[in-house]
Amino acid sequence: MGEKTKFYVDVSSLHKEVTGSCILNTVRFPDGSKKMILVDCGMFQEKDYVELNKSFPFIPSNIDHLIITHNHMDHIGRIPFLVKKGYQGKIHMTKATQVLIKPALYDGVKVFQSRYDSFNEPMLYTTDDVDSTIKLIEGHEYEKGIFLDTEERIKLTFFMNGHLPGAAIVLLQLYYPGYKKINLLFTGDYSSKNSFFDVNSLPKEICDDEPITVICESTYGDMNSSEIKEVFVNNIKEAVDAKKQIVCPVFSLGRTQEVMLKIKQMQDEGLISKSVPIYYQGPLGCKYNLLYESTENVLGLNENARNFYPANLTIVTNKQKEHSIIAKNDCKIVLCSSGMGTYGPSRTYLPAFLSKSNALIHFTGYLSEDSMGRAIYEAEPGSVCQLLGQEVKKRAQVEYTSEFSSHAKADELITFLKRFKHLKCVLINHGEESTKHEFSKRVVNEIEPKFTAVLGEYLYRIGPYGFANKSYNTKYQPVK
Ligand SMILES: [Zn+2]
Ligand SMILES: [Zn+2]
């Protein structure tokens, strides 16, 4: 086919939009050998794509290495399914992700079980498959490169990422004697900062010295950080002043602890009284809370941030307490999982509080299209919502904020990409289709790498100098 070089990697993503992260990298070495490396193995959560969860477009036993960027279901949710279907290699992640992933995967089985019980949906995997998965995990330190193979051709290094504790930017470096090496950098879900720990920036030599291809997320690729309005503190203060009952659905990992820290700061600043009761209900979140506060500090958090619990906090662990919280019309703040309202205690609290006129429901993060949260948020005030088979009139005030988001916005992603002096190629993924295209135009205009494209439908062949092969037989759509 008239290849210019025999050393390259074909990069393709299984996911077209936000969820189901799974990037397949097929490395072809000049001696004709091939290695298949997966970065992430996530669950599809968008309604249109859930069918894709049931199979892989490759043979799992043919995958040589699996690397995980961070502990979110859209990046880890199908690992036990991959193992069940024959993957036997190691699963590489940071040491903190190694600790966080266990409760997440076992909780995932519970979610399958409840969906099986309610809708007879087939279970992708069981706790036995999670047990087998855990045995394959290998945890690594940040910034310490390791070779994944005995020939020392594939080097993996994790760098810090503010998206979550344990989250990483992944650098893959591919070597072959006599050839210049190939550098591929995967941002994972990316943020440059986190309220709980300091984020080291990428070392200078990674940014300055060599040609590099970046596979970049774009969840908020159509929005600038200046567009994010900080409304949470004000909304909560006003509701407490009006003696309202407040419910905040929160994601178990990250958001729960961040919202608690925010409420604690409000108490410390005297914005709300410490006499207002705070409740938290979320079994998985409680496990993460313990890891956040643990003196062993396995997550590498800042000392002062580990004391994040607000005053007057009660952890709710039983239905009886839940019912009494709902029945009493006193001023209080209830934090509950899940963040989108689709699972867990939120399924009880949200319909109950929606019908109360002296309540505020405050969402704290992304609401997917088919979630209970989105249905509640988008319903007209006074209209009737269908929630879990009940009709509920929307009387409560309902608010939303994206200020807690742990994703970089478009301008921050551009700043990140501008650090690379020899940025040859940018492949954009993890965004809604229109967002990815919008962001790719921005990359072309503001950074001018040699080649920019949107990952999804096509695979891209990357060599030591970036985009490698225009005669390759697969369709591709470079952005002009
Ligand atoms: Zn994530
Ligand atoms: Zn993600």
Structure in words:
The protein is α/β, with parallel strands linked by helices and 480 residues long. It has 2 domains: 8-223 and 409-467, Metallo-beta-lactamase, Chain A (4-Layer Sandwich), CATH 3.60.15; 229-400, Rossmann fold (3-Layer(aba) Sandwich), CATH 3.40.50.10890. 28% of the residues lie in helices and 22% in strands. It has helices at residues 73-76, 79-84, 95-119, 127-136, 204-208, 232-241, 255-268, 283-293, 319-327, 346-354, 372-378, 410-418, 433-446; strands spanning 8-13, 23-28, 34-39, 65-67, 91-94, 137-140, 146-147, 154-160, 168-174, 182-186, 212-217, 245-249, 278-281, 313-315, 332-336, 359-363, 384-387, 390-393, 397-400, 423-429, 451-454, 460-463, 466-467. It has an 8-stranded mixed beta sheet with strand order 6-5-4-3-2-1-22-23. The protein has a 7-stranded mixed beta sheet with strand order 7-8-9-10-11-20-21, covered by helices on one side. A 6-stranded parallel beta sheet has the order 14-13-15-12-16-19, with helices on both faces. The radius of gyration is 23 Å and the shape is globular. Mean pLDDT is 92; it is low at 471-480. The protein binds zinc ion (ZN) (2 copies). The site of one zinc ion (ZN) has 6 residues, from helix 1.
Mean pLDDT: 92
Bound molecules: zinc ion
C-alpha Rg (nearest Å) = 23 Å
Low-confidence stretches: 471-480
What class, by secondary structure content? alpha/beta
CATH fold topology of the largest domain: Metallo-beta-lactamase, Chain A
Measured between the Cα atoms of the first and last residue, the distance is 24 Å
